[in-house]
Amino acid sequence: GLMGAAEAAASLAVQLGDAQAEAALLAEGRDRAEAQKAELQARAHELEQAVSAGNAECQALHQQLSEAIEREAVAVEGRRVAEATAEELRAGLAEAVAGREVALGQLNEAAAAFETAAAESAARVAELEGQLAGARADA
Prior knowledge:
Keywords: Coiled coil
Coiled coil: 23-57
Oligomer: single chain
Order of helices and strands: H
């Protein structure tokens, strides 16, 4: 009876040792798993921040692109307006030159007419002076 009880006690002690060793291994595994979990959570947080920063950068680049497209459109429109204005100025200048030519022609005509009138007037004066001289001679 006593031997059986001692054997049973020894067997229980072995089983207890095995169970304790297994519990220690499981606890170690659990600790390792918790450490990995914490590490993965930290990494996930880093990735979320990187994604967030990347999104912000993309938005900033998109904004810059939109502004650049807008500036280009404004520049193109400005150039078109400037070219149209230059064209109008060229046309106006051409008209002014043509107008000046016409005015010069009219001035030349007027000067010629004035000279003709002056010559006719001088001839008339000479004719009248001749007549007057003749009348005085007769008188």
